[in-house]
Amino acid sequence: NGDDHTADAMERTMRARVRTWPLCSLRRRPARTPGRMCKALHVQDEALDALAGGNGTGAAAPTFQEALLRLTKYWARNGCAVHLPYHTEVGAGTMNPATFLRVAGPEPWNAAYAEPSMRPDDARYGDNPNRVGRHTQFQVVAKPAGSKTQELYLGSLAALGVDVNSHDVRFVEDNWESPVLGAWGLGWEVWLDGMEITQFTYFQQAGGIKLSPPAVEITYGVERILMALQQVDHFKDIRYADGITYGEVFLQSEYEMSVYHLDVAEVEDQKARFDSYEEEAKRMLDRRLPVPAYDNLLKASHAFNVLDARGAVGVTERAAFFAKMRTLARGCAQLWLDRREELGFPLGVWQMPSPPSESKAATDESYLAPGSSPRDFLLEIGSEELPPQDAVAAAKQLKTAVTSLLERLRLAHKGIITGGTPRRTYILVKDLATCQEDLAQRIRGPPARVAYGEDGKPTKALEGFCRKNGVSLDQIELGKDSNDKGGADYVFANVKTAGRPAVDVLSETLAEVVEGITFPKTMRWLTDAAYSRPVRWIVALHGEVVVPFVAMGLLSGATTRLLRNAAEPEIQLESADEYLDKMNTAGIVVDMELRRQSIYQDALEAASAVQGTITQRTADALLEEVTNLVECPRVILGKYKSEFLSLPREVLEIVMKKHQRYFAVEDPSTGNLLPYFVTVANGNINVDVVREGNEAVLRARYEDARFFYKSDCSKSLVSFREKLDGTVFQEKLGSMLDKSHRLEKLAGQVVNCLGLSPEVSDLVSQAAPLAHCDLATDLVTEFTALAGTMGCHYAQLEGKPKKSVHCNLRVCVTQRCW
After folding, report:
1. For the segment 367-407, what is each residue's pLDDT rounded down to a tens digit?
2. DSSP result, 42-83
């Protein structure tokens, strides 16, 4: 009971739970003799092999500890050292020195470890089924990142028992940044049937240091994964081990630490701790001890997190705290790098791989023969999943660049087709000539007075002009230049340049096209070239001829990739003109507009099956994004409990649209929401499995929202006002409650100064105390975009006057605009 945080209540709860524990979990074990200990260790090792062996496909859902064992064994087999969790509180596995410090510098480093992560602000006394203050991450860090890291990750899911051929596993853009650590990277959230289960990031910077080589970080949310695999709706019901649940292991500590972090931690004491740890970290930096310095930084960071959970950190203070921690993080990272260099980089020094050697195009006689027939030309840039907006931008830039290039190279063609998906950007040039058009030019040289001496003989200037243009002196002509108003004579050369084979001129120029594509945010991986996400393959074909060139550290070829779970993930293209057919056969819709129309029509058809339609608001907001999140769209109709329709519509829609990228379904006759949604999966999946997974994710989110909504509705809106006292607005201006009181006072003064009517005065006196109150409600804390909207809703539920309600909404909207 969140309102009964007493030792007696907790003791009664735990006694009741102990009575339900299986006897096997409480039975006393006999002491082991040395011989038995050795045997037991041997048996445990065999068990570990059995748990983590194979790919786990079709295996029963693992327990929590089995999942950790499987991941540990899998990544150990793939070259990672098994590291240990850190000994003090960290907010994420990233903060363990095995990641943050080790990613700096040129030493190769591959490690995997489980990391208990403490986030006080997420604490919910164990009441929320999906939110805990202490959760478990499994962390993998690899430096340098290999070219098949995504495929290795999918293999780890199979080791956990996830059938990647049935489930919808997707990489959805998520650009990560840690202001505290001075670190950032680009990557994705990994979704399993709509649920985020992993953070996958290519680190670009840590501690303010540009990383060379960049490292990849894979962070699994273990509780989320196990809830999905075990099909339980509350974290406490996860099977931790045979005969014992996660709740029986951790619920008491989750409850008590929630009470501490949210209710009883002394604010002034935490501030003093922060200051003390900060000073000690500085002292350790002065002593050139980066590890103890970083240890104290982590302790200071946790003290800040406790203060934040207690609502004791305002906007200005937050920036000041972050600046202090960021300065320390940079100092620790730089000193660590300096110390490793002094030690001679004991783990070795990574060297950037040499780019592959270009080979001459293997052309046949028919290609080089005069008058040979035109052929289709294909250029495909294959990458890891691009963000939707970047996929669109890349296709547009590629079309512009290639169109300009072909004109410059004098290569005739009959049209250009371009498009792309998250994993590929392509351009198909129809009937591209196999040879450049011959070029005839009349080139102006120096003035005649400069070209010939007083004796009429050619000067060195004229001889140089002839050599440059490949003409003899007897081919030189004298004439006027129409652009020269002085009418002087100039020398001219009529130069004819024979066209070169298209494959040769394209080989020399396509690299600048590929590497010239730009994005608002770019990253590096194993080369100095930058792109939105790592480029993994390049196809360049003119007819059946490969156009060889090197870009992004890759040599172009004829091998393209299909869906990752296809029977043949890679295929060899025989010619450019078969590309679209091969993609179509594989179910990949490379035409963006066709994919968009297909998704929209299929979504409308799915909604019509339940006498509904897609709401125009979600269609307009989501369609382009969803179109470019998939390359093999599978539209699926899902359902949720009709009882959730009692929640405010804005809550239902923000969850579907913003968090899940679902299309809401409404009744076309009334405009009311129906208890259905449409999602778009990717690839050849099991529709029933994916539907059930997405329904479970939405159900959990709506359960959360209902939990918060009911909690909010149990109190009056104005009662939340006093809670604003716990949130600092600005150090010298006090709390949000102080701001609310000032607003109420100033509003009355403005009314009097303007001489407004008594009606307006009454309206303002009712509305002013309600402004900002919803900032302290549970639902707005969870969905901050609903600030003002929920205040308006709660005020209406209480029967407040309509004009007063709208004043509250306008206050919040105006602040967001400012």
Report:
1. 777 778 999 999 999 999 999 999 999 999 999 999 999 99
2. HHHHHHHHHHHSS--TTPPPPPHHHHHHHHHHHHHHTT-EE-
Indicate if the pLDDT at residue 23 is higher than 50. Answer: no
196: three-class secondary structure by DSSP: strand
pTM, two decimal places: 0.84
Cα 253 to the chain's mean position, in Å? 32
Tokens read off for 44:
């445990």
Distances, alpha carbon 186 to alpha carbons 110, 389, 600, 658, 685, in Å: 19, 14, 30, 20, 27
Helix residue ranges per DSSP H, 492-615 = 502-515, 579-585, 592-608
- Say if CB 158 and CB 57 are below 8 A apart: yes
Rounded CA-CA distance 57/157 in Å is 9
Residue 356 in 3-state DSSP? coil
Characterize 594-607 residue by residue with b for buried, 16 or more Cβ atoms within 10 angstroms of its Cβ, and e for exposed: ebbebbbebbbebb
Cα–Cα distance, 737 to 721 (Å, whole number): 7
pLDDT tens digits along 539-592: 999 999 999 999 999 999 999 999 998 999 999 999 999 999 999 999 999 999
Please name which of 706, 702, 705, 716 lies closest in space to residue 774, comparing C-alpha atoms: 716
Amino acid sitting at position 517: I
Q: Report how far residue 773's alpha carbon sits from residue 538's, in angstroms, rounded to the nearest whole number.
A: 55
> Alpha carbon of 405 to those of 419, 496, 512, 522: distances in Å?
18, 21, 10, 24
- The H or E element containing residue 590 is none
Residue pair 321/297 in contact by the 8 Å Cβ criterion: no
